Amino acid sequence: MKFLNFKTMKRLLLFLVILITYSCKENPEKFIPHLNGYWEIEKVILASGDVHDYKYNPLVDYFKLTDSLKGFRKKLKPLPDGTFEDSKDTEEFNMKIEQDSLNIYYKTKFSNWKETILLASENQLKIINANKNIYVYKPYKPININ
């Protein structure tokens, strides 16, 4: 039996690493059903590596899909009685699956921008923006004063 030479083994290993990496990447379509709802920023991981933790959030992000790939996001202020004060500003968006990523394209009368959903589950939402800052959200849970 002949053994593979070092160069061939190296190529085979590289091929296996690439194959495993691409096959393990999660399908971004699975993120879509989890986006709807009230999300509270837990932390922001800046491109520099610095982390800003949020202990308290005066505002909550509300995402609403109006169909499979269109929707809006707005900032809401939770009130003690369990209702929300509406900011009246709505950011409409379209989502697109591009190169194995789920991208959100926002459009307002003031600006247009893109963000990419890195993860969306019932317990966490991670979004990266053009500046490479990662926003980590948790589901919003009202504070029970009673």
Which architecture per CATH? Beta Barrel
Q: What's the rounded overall pLDDT mean? A: 86
Low-confidence stretches: none
- Please indicate the percent range of residues in DSSP E strands (runs of 2 or more): over 45%
Widest sheet, order of strands: 1-3-4-5-6-7-8-9
Q: What's the CATH class, please?
A: Mainly Beta
* Rg (CA only): 20 Å
The count of strands amounts to 9
Helices and strands: which structural class?
A: alpha+beta
The helical percent reads 10-25%
Alpha plus pi helix count: 2
* Shape by Cα distribution: elongated
* H-E string: HHEEEEEEEEE
CATH topology, by name, is: Lipocalin
CA distance, first residue to last residue: 76 Å
Largest sheet: 8 strands, antiparallel, barrel
Give the domain tally. Answer: 1
Pfam family, one: Lipocalin_4
Protein name: Lipocalin-like domain-containing protein
InterPro entries: Lipocalin-like
Domain Lipocalin-like: 35-127
Description:
- With 146 residues, the protein is α+β, with helices and mostly antiparallel strands.
- It has one domain (31-139): Beta Barrel (Lipocalin).
- Helices cover 16% and strands 47% of the residues.
- It contains 2 helices and 9 strands; from the N terminus they run ααβββββββββ.
- The chain has an 8-stranded antiparallel barrel.
- Strand 5 (84-98) and strand 6 form a beta hairpin.
- It is elongated, with a radius of gyration of 20 Å.
- The protein starts with 5 loop residues before the first helix and ends in a 7-residue tail after the last strand.
- 10% of the residues are buried.
- The mean pLDDT is 86.
